[in-house]
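Example record

One chain of 165 residues, shown exactly as stored in the release files.
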Amino acid sequence: MTNYLLSIDPSIKNTGITLWENKKPIWVSSFSFKKFNNDEWKEFKHAIYRDHFWETNLIIERGTFNPKFGKGKETLDHLRGFIAGQFNKLLTKDMLISPSSWQNWYIKEFLVFFENDKKWTKKHSLEIVQIIITENNWNIKVNNHDEADSLLIGWYFYRKINNEN
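Predicted structure tokens for this chain:
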């Protein structure tokens, strides 16, 4: 495993991205593929290409099937493939994490936030990510729930998937 990880919460409206170096977030951002801004994309690629383009592992939240959102699911599948392709990687099963996996893990870890309702919300993402940032004394700012989710996906990967406590 490399020292770099890119954890991604893909969305057509606003994709959250966190770049990790040695298990510490060093860059958090988000941008919209619907309102594609070439400057934002250049900033994103610059952050990745800087020193570690070939060394970056990807963790991307995978979608869940809902027949009501068939076209949206297809679009997100293309988006995931596009992102992986930017790093000359094929999108593989081991790069994908289901939303319920990481959210349920945080629900168990932060049960106090879920006393009345065990349903994940944007508010939960923002509250929990601030606790994690403070506890780890990270000098990083999260501006929205998509950025929060991307950071939470990466932290889940390091803590749960890699069994690092």
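Notes: The helical segments are 38-49, 70-85, 99-109, 122-135, 145-161.
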